[in-house]
UniProtKB/TrEMBL annotation:
<dbReference type="InterPro" id="IPR025202">
    <property type="entry name" value="PLD-like_dom"/>
</dbReference>
<dbReference type="Pfam" id="PF13091">
    <property type="entry name" value="PLDc_2"/>
</dbReference>
<keyword id="KW-0677">Repeat</keyword>
<dbReference type="InterPro" id="IPR015679">
    <property type="entry name" value="PLipase_D_fam"/>
</dbReference>
<dbReference type="InterPro" id="IPR001736">
    <property type="entry name" value="PLipase_D/transphosphatidylase"/>
</dbReference>
<protein>
    <recommendedName>
        <fullName>PLD phosphodiesterase domain-containing protein</fullName>
    </recommendedName>
</protein>
<dbReference type="GO" id="GO:0004630">
    <property type="term" value="F:phospholipase D activity"/>
</dbReference>
<keyword id="KW-0443">Lipid metabolism</keyword>
<keyword id="KW-0378">Hydrolase</keyword>
<dbReference type="GO" id="GO:0009395">
    <property type="term" value="P:phospholipid catabolic process"/>
</dbReference>
<feature type="domain" description="PLD phosphodiesterase">
    <location>
        <begin position="712"/>
        <end position="739"/>
    </location>
</feature>
Length: 832
């Protein structure tokens, strides 16, 4: 059975279609931009059609395209709002099943999914006639306000309800109102009659931009889809059960046969899903000589360019090559410049764009001015896997280490395979997979060393948190094995003024090189998952696993520290020089992630001086500060401490921008700051940490746009920031001034080339995955779909948390304005 309908009844075969329907104005850029003779330029948000005034009434009837909700969106532009006979704009939003079908159909054809359809020009009397029976037929009506809040069941006056409906204050369910697929909603209004033709418009709205309008910034244009492209796609599509999406009888002689279908529209959007407005031109070229179309990216054309049909291959770029990376919608390919699209008309393709240099930052001058880091500004073609909580993270690490046992030998050369471990806390003698004795780190390293393949093992650890047995285990592996040698060594160093805070592994096995980093130490108290069962440690954290060129930077960062520390301790081993990561990614997995590896370590002056790093590095803080300043819709920080005045002030600056009225900040912290891992005795108590956290957060909590939540059910050890479903980081750096300034830290920043529903997939998936866990929701497709829309997700967090939610508004445990004794000089010396 068909699930969708055309806008109008198809004319009977005896009625020539060219005597009924006419195109008045096409959707999209018109005038000179479309190659027309007219000198008028602009953009039509709707496809405007005309129907012959003497056509049968059934041919002038607009019908329901899908099941869902119906509401009046207002009076047609150009008519007085208080005119009871003015043509109306009527909006239909699809129901859940229809939305699911639409999403699949549109994704397969690489077009956007409509969120709603609007008819411009419906006669109000005919619309009232269509809904009157519903308002009179039942004493308990199900209606919605425009914002989606239920009004409940009630028995008011039917005429009053109709008045509210016409005013746009109520939405009604199509099916319950007897207005299912293909049923009439009303006729086109004769108020649009001119020269024997009655005009009406068809508009499809898609995912909105992220930005929010303010007094200083006008509303961003609503994103729209070409109706001709959509209905051509829908007319040829199949549902998941194999049925036709639209009944074939409705496709014959429809209005589609009488509209312009000889164009290809290409819309360019920025990172916030808004039409790209740039000083550069968009350039689209075909495969043949002289095939070129160009358009200025301005408000007039809404980021859209008109290209002729017949080229099939459309090469797209923005201004000078390299300024913006381009990605087609719903395609698992890496961002590129230029981008080649293969399509035939009619088509409306959306291209997401991003300038990576706007997000990935170099180090900025510190004390003294720092040089450029030896790591890449960013690399492309990476695969980053999200690992939430210790059990999934350890499972992936164990899987990577087990492949060392089956490696084939490489006689006569230094080992190709290696394991690098950088740990703030490192325990080699616990089951990383529960009830599996073979999953202990020391056992896995022994298996790798006893395999036919030679192996290098290197471990750097902060000595204050490493069991002696772990060091002994790793160093004892450095003995002859079979025909070759194994090079295994662990180095510890301890400095009470600064911490080696890494949680990093790099494993090269027969399948490639894999780097893992984040907040999860190789430590038995991290064995937990999203259920946080009582028998487990109830410890929440986030890690990631990286394949691709970014692994080279993680390896470089490790080796730089290894060589310095081992040279200082007089046991530098030349075998380390043979460590070379293999940059491979599986062909079947889309390598779409742009990644920057950033670090923190102290400059050569001031507290925590390290002789091997006289210039220091603060690229993690440079990226975080920049990302906060670029946020337009939301900043989400999930953090163990949040006691950094630097980060707090950066957020306050962002909130104080004239265009920041729609910006919201969500901060998630544990119920009590845990100082059990602190070595600073003067402030080594939870009350002191909680006092500083309150002092730090108080100025933010005075702003109603800032929402601070805490969790009691488990300890939040995460170090994650997500901005606008675009940019995010997973790493070791806490939101304290140690993590931003002088402790040894390492983070991965991810910008996904893929876009889904107008946002970057990796950042959106990270946010929704974390919110689902903290809200106590099941980790399934329905939950992710519910939370994916940022407006709806924020509403759930703020106003509609379920009864089993683990999140609650933060309640300070130790409020006050005085800092604990010696806080600045001992625990957080750069906190002034």
């Amino acid at each position: 059975m068909a699930m969708f309908s055309m806008f109008l009844n198809a004319p009977p075969a005896s009625t020539p279609v060219n005597l009924v329907y006419f195109e008045k104005r096409p959707f999209g850029p018109y005038g000179q931009a479309a190659g027309e003779v007219s000198t008028e330029n602009g953009f039509s948000n709707a496809l405007w059609l005309q129907v012959s005034a003497n056509a049968a009434a059934s041919l002038r009837g607009l019908r329901a395209v899908w099941d869902g909700w119906l509401r009046v969106a207002g009076v047609q532009e150009g008519f007085a709002a208080d005119d009871p006979t003015a043509p109306l704009v009527v909006e239909l939003s699809p129901g859940p099943n229809q939305a699911l079908e639409l999403r699949g159909i549109c994704a397969a054809q690489q077009i956007e999914t409509p969120r709603r359809i609007r008819y411009h020009g419906i006669d109000p009397a005919s619309l009232v006639a269509a809904v009157t029976t519903y308002f009179h037929s039942t004493p308990s009506l199900r209606v919605l306000t425009p914002g989606g809040g239920g009004l409940g069941t009630f028995d008011p006056n039917a005429e009053q309800l109709i008045g509210l409906f016409l005013a746009g204050s109520l939405s009604v369910p199509l099916v319950e109102a007897g207005l299912g697929v293909g049923q009439p909603l009303g006729t086109v209004s004769t108020r649009n009659l001119a020269d024997g033709l009655i005009g009406f418009g068809i508009e499809l709205q898609t995912d909105p931009p992220m930005g929010v309008a303010t007094a200083a910034q006008p509303p961003l244009p609503i994103n729209r889809l070409d109706p001709v492209t959509f209905f051509n796609t829908l007319g040829a599509a199949k549902l998941r059960n194999g049925a036709d999406a639209i009944d074939p009888a409705q496709r014959q002689n429809s209005w589609l046969d009488n509209v312009t279908k000889s164009r290809v529209l290409i819309t360019f959007r920025d990172e916030w899903n808004a039409p790209l407005l740039s000083t550069s031109d968009a350039v689209v070229t075909g495969p043949g000589a002289g095939q070129s179309a160009l358009a200025r990216m301005d408000n007039v054309h809404a980021g859209t360019i008109v290209a002729p049909t017949g080229w099939h291959l459309y090469t797209c770029s923005i201004g000078v090559p390299g300024t913006r990376k381009l990605t087609p919608l719903n395609v698992n390919t890496a961002a590129a410049d230029p981008l080649v699209i293969d399509t035939a008309g009619p088509a409306h393709r959306v291209v997401a764009t991003v300038r990576p240099e706007d997000w990935f930052q170099p180090d900025f001058p510190s004390r003294p001015p720092a040089p450029q880091t030896d790591l890449a500004r960013y690399t492309s073609g990476n695969i980053v896997d999200l690992l939430v909580d210790g059990i999934p993270a350890f499972k992936r690490l164990v899987g990577d280490l087990r492949e060392l046992e089956d490696s084939s030998p490489s006689p006569g050369r230094f080992p190709d395979h290696f394991v690098l471990i950088g740990g703030w806390f490192l325990d080699a003698d616990f089951e990383m997979i529960e009830r599996d004795a073979t999953s202990k780190l020391k056992r896995l390293l022994e298996l790798g060393i006893n395999s036919p393949h030679r192996l290098i093992v290197r471990a750097l650890a902060w000595g204050m948190n490493v069991p002696h047995e772990t060091l002994r285990t790793i160093n004892l592996l450095d003995v002859p094995r079979g025909a070759g040698y194994v090079f295994a060594s662990a180095v510890t160093f301890s400095d009470p003024r600064t911490s080696f805070h890494w949680k990093v592994t790099v494993v090269r096995n027969r399948f490639g090189t894999f780097a893992s980093l984040g907040g999860i130490d190789i430590n038995p108290n991290r064995v937990d998952d999203s259920d946080h069962l009582p028998r487990r440690t109830k410890y929440h954290d986030v890690h990631c696993r990286i394949q691709g060129p970014a692994v080279v930077d993680v390896t470089k960062a490790f080796l730089a520290r290894w060589r310095i520390h081992t040279t200082e301790q007089g046991n530098y081993l030349d075998a380390t020089d043979s460590i070379t990561p293999t940059v491979t990614t599986p062909a079947e997995v889309p390598a779409t992630h742009l990644v920057q590896i950033t670090r923190t370590f102290q400059a050569g002056t001031g507290f925590g001086y390290q002789p091997w790093s006289p210039q220091g590095e603060r690229t993690t803080w440079a990226n975080l500060r920049n990302a906060i300043s670029r946020a337009k819709r939301y900043i989400y920080i999930e953090e163990q401490y949040f006691v950094s005045a630097l980060v707090r002030d950066a957020i306050l600056d962002a909130l104080n921008q004239p265009t920041a009225a729609g910006l919201e900040v969500v901060i998630l912290i544990p119920d009590s700051a845990d100082s059990s891992d602190s070595i600073f005795n003067p402030v080594n108590d939870k009350d002191s940490w909680d006092r500083v956290r309150y002092i730090t957060l108080s100025p933010l909590m005075n702003d109603p746009r800032v929402h601070v939540f805490s969790i009691k059910d488990y300890y939040v050890h995460t170090k994650v920031t997500v901005v606008d479903d675009i940019f995010c980081t997973i790493g070791t750096s806490n939101i304290n001034n140690r993590g931003m300034n002088f402790d040894a830290e390492i983070n991965a920043w991810v910008l996904d080339g893929r876009t889904e529903a107008g946002v970057r997939k990796f950042a959106r998936d990270l946010r929704t995955r974390l919110w689902a866990e903290h809200l106590g929701k099941p980790l399934n497709e329905g939950t992710f779909a519910e939370l994916a829309d940022i407006d709806r997700g924020l509403d759930i967090l703020k106003n509609r948390r379920p009864a089993n939610s683990r999140m609650a508004p933060y309640q300070p445990r130790n409020p006050g304005s005085d800092y604990p004794r010696l806080w600045f000089t001992v625990a957080d010396p750069d906190g002034t």
